[in-house]
Amino acid sequence: MRTKMVAGNWKMNKTLQEGVALATELKEKVANPRCEVVIATPFIHLATVAELLKDSPIRVAAENCADHESGAYTGEVSAAMVASTGATYCIIGHSERRQYYAENYDILRTKTDLCLKNNLRPIFCIGEVKEEREANRQNEVVKAQLEGSVFHLSEADFRRVVLAYEPVWAIGTGLTATPEQAQEMHAFIRSLVEAKYGKAVADDTTILYGGSCNAKNAAELFANPDVDGGLIGGASLKAEDFTTIINAR
Ligand code: PGA
Questions:
Q1: Helices and strands (H and E) in the chain: how many
Q2: Of 45, 93, 165, 186, which has the fewest beta carbons less than 10 angstroms from its beta carbon?
Q3: Pairing between strand 229-232 and 58-62?
Q4: Whose CA is nearest to atom 7 of ligand 1?
């Protein structure tokens, strides 16, 4: 059985003190989850939050990592540094990174490789923009994203990757994909994994949905057979909402 998961993505929100307060609240509320729970925090929070959550079932993720191993890259944070904080996951390829920081398939392939090399599990994001959905090109877009950055992996490495389908038109907009749209795309993604790695790997691949997933619509989205959980932005910033979403999984 594949892992069910609810992951929060704090993005560029919360000072260190606010982040510690939120993680402390979550630690109390999320003592016995039925699924894997992950929170992705800004880099500067990682060591403190990972230490705070070390006896909790909640895992910690970075939201990004550098596309180089080490050296003269001022301002960057390497996968090895992320892992040294106690974080065990790293979001790669979020649409905001692709869009605002011009992260292309090659950069994201390198970041994925560096995560795996440093024992971090990538939460790899894919998804189409509004114009692509309107032109009915969503399938070819996610296929190209997978082929460009993760389908070069060995089977053993691919098994460590969590996929997150996040239609860009649904992120932070309040426009959620319908449960039917999510299921259709997740089934398509799983079929691509099957064609590449075989049925056993496809059956074991965790595929999250992200994009305006909240305390109200989570249960309906998670009820679909190919939707294994969610990657939650805005609603992960409030302990109560995030806990409701976790309990819906
Ligand atoms: P949202 O963000 O839940 O605020 O739409 C999701 C994400 O970007 O991961």
A1: 12, 8
A2: 186
A3: unpaired
A4: 233
- Tens of pLDDT along 184-195? 999 999 999 999
Is residue 9 within 8 Å of 209, Cβ to Cβ? no
Is 166 considered catalytic here?
yes
Q: Of residues 45, 63, 94, 186, which has the active-site annotation?
A: 94
Is 186 an active-site residue?
A: no
Which one of 9, 41, 92, 176 would you pick to mutate in the ligand 1 pocket, going by the greatest count of ligand atoms within 8 A of its CB? Answer: 9
Q: Is 185 in the pocket of ligand 1 (CB under 6 A)?
A: no
Tokens coding 183: 């299921």
DSSP string, 117-163: HTTPEEEEEE---HHHHHTT-HHHHHHHHHHHHTTTS-HHHHTTPEE
Ligand 1 within 6 A of 231 CB?
A: yes
CB of 8 shorter than 6 A to ligand 1: no
Tell me the CB-side half-sphere exposure of residue 102, using CA atoms within 13 A. 0
- Indicate whether 174 pLDDT > 90: no
Residue 127 — pLDDT band, cuts 50, 70, 90? very high
pTM (predicted TM-score): 0.97
**Residue 88 near residue 60, CB atoms below 8 Å:** yes
Nearest CA to ligand 1 atom 1: 233
